[in-house]
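New to this. Explain these tokens.
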Amino acid sequence: MPALMLDIIHHVVAAEPDMAVIGVVDDGDLPAAVRRGRADVVVVGHDAQAERDSYLPLLLRHPHVKVLAIADNGKSGSLYELRPRRVPLGKISARTLTQAIRRRAPPSSETRAPKRRAAEVH
């Protein structure tokens, strides 16, 4: 990730009262960085050749972690996370069954959550 992009991300995260940058990982060892810093979010540079499955081992080992992959040009990004959740359906009928199949994950809540700890990787 370009140094300017790292600097921008660092300042954006540090400016939020419920977030903190806990470190920068130079060697790319994501699992070790998460373990050392107990990160909730890992921000990574993501080139067009990188595959989304490369984050799966990290997410399986640390299911609470989110990986924010930002394109090298800084114009787009993706969020990778495991989101197991239970949604009570009530009494099962044809309608509740088809609604459950169509249901998508709800958008992120804007409510304040516990302080997030982010580790940057470049």
